[in-house]
Specification:
The protein contains 16 helices and 36 strands. The chain has 693 residues and is an alpha+beta fold.
Amino acid sequence: MEGYSVKQYAPEHIRNVAIVGHGGSGKTMLVEHMLYTAAAADRVGSVEAGNTQSDYDPLEIRRKISVSASVLPLEYHGHKINLIDVPGYPDFIGELHAIAEVVDSMIIVCEAKRDLDVGFDLAWEVAEQHGLAKCIFINKLERDNADYEGLIDTLHQRYGKRIVNVQIPIGHQAAFSGVLDLVQMKVYKGKDRGEEIEEIPTGFAAEAEERHDKMMDAAAEGDDDLMVKYLEGEQLTLEEVEHGLLEGTRQGKVVPVLLGSAQSGIGVATLLDRIIGELPSPLYHPVDIDGKHYEEDPNGPLIAYVFKTTADPYVGKINYLRVFSGTIKADDHVLNVNRENDERLHNLFFPHGKTQENATVVSAGDICAVAKLQDTHTGDTLCSAKERVMFPPPKFPDPIYRVAIRPKTKADEDKLGNAIARLLEEDPTLRYSREAELHQELLEGMGDIHIETAIEKLKTRFGVTVEIEEARVPYRETVRTKAKAQGKFKRQTGGKGQYGDCWLEIEPLAGGEGFVFENKVVGGAIPKNYIPAVEKGVIETMKKGFLAGYPVVDVKVTVTDGSYHDVDSSEMAFKQAATIGFRAAAEQARPVLLEPVLKVEIIVPDDCVGDVVGDLNTRRGQMQGMEPAAAGKTLINAQVPMATMMRYALDLRSLTKGRGFFRTAFDHYADVPSHEADGLIKQFKELQTTETH
């Protein structure tokens, strides 16, 4: 809303809440209604119309999905709630990990259906890893296929008594008209700012009492004093119920379940009430760094953490940070302890999606942003020079999908380096490398959508167009037996003659031993000053390969004999002779192609193990064992050729409905099966023929 501003709040009146869940669950629309209900927006936008507060990037509008987390503060009943809308697709899981570092709770949005989506599982796991309070918001209760009871059964089966109904729906599917709040024991109908409060209808009284009692049990368990009072039969006050639920939620004993419709706005006002009442403030989330404890105290030493960086084409670099201790002011000088540099906070502001509100003071517990810092990056700690502390580096998942990119024009090539650097600064889950051996520039990410959006950003933000091609496999060549051959280079026409002659013996070394060169020439058959040229000729030939153009590894080459000419011999001639001799010897030494084999760890749901193992067999994978992972999941260990794993991220997603995850590491090189090798050698020879013509 134009002109909307937020005043300063004490930590106890701040809530930092991530809105998470599967892509398409309705997170963005829920945020829209929350902003409107709290009068932080003057309208409710729509994903379809491309005018929501959080999905403002042209790329998001075009794709109609969230690809980057957005910070959207609001004021409600004397509190400031910093909402962070987090992308739900697994390709953007890096955003989820980054935001988990700075929020105090997560609201996991899910559709009213029996099965839980992978985005729910990811959000739950990350919240558990970071010790965050969790709340579930069941959405789309107005849908024809809505199955509220089925979902509640699934949640209870999976998480037991931690799941606590705080609300129940009024009406079913098309008849859904409101929520019965079990804390207030009132019915809330209407939507957004027009919510109406009613008494519990007679037909719901019995169910309401039963669920209310279960909720009271959960509330009492959150606090020992409350439990004593409750067991003695005393009535708990509203404040005591909220305190008990808050303590239970903070400790992870309770996961409140709320509900509504992000499309219509039903249940949104009560959701905001529950955020204030049952989700923890920053005071419940102090930090420990290097064994030292820091409270969320505005008067304490300054400690702020940078959790996100964006590259705005107009504003420049923007760093988002949370203040964990102390207070920062506009134009303050702070120490970036990671870079050992002084930064001045010229452009301090509160982000509101795509808009900004200038900030003069930001105190402990709050979230803000700073533009145009000189050398500050995601994961950095800003502090006072007197209190030098540093947050541990953030942990992001390793990329699992790679493509090769090629600049379309010379102008694109000139701009690519800077554009890539800015892109990597914004997204720590992307990786870029130049592979000289493969003559490719590789871009790695979390999946095809992740890579596609990165390439779109290169074009739309930085004016760099690249083309995608398949990433090549770094094959190797070697020999399996000993062989000896002569290399002789002689040229007598066209000026000064050239003469070089050497006998080379080639033999295999054990895997990983690399290259060994030995000189066994006696009697001056080759003068010593030409021996380095022979070695250089061998090394240069090994780089280019002799079977399919891949580097040669794990061989020993010995020069045993040769001859020279007093006038015509030269270093160049002996280099050429070495090339000829090496190729001739290698061809006789049973040459083979080697392929990189990866160590692969895959975590999949138990019911997917058979399909995943079967798929690994088609990829020439060698099983190394299986063991239980988390509840309902199995860890599969295998060795699999890299050549068969290039699109595995997409294939595993399909096999497991997005619930499988894997990581790889190089393990060793192994012989390529003969039929595969024949195909690679044929391709290489055809390419050589094409290039010569």
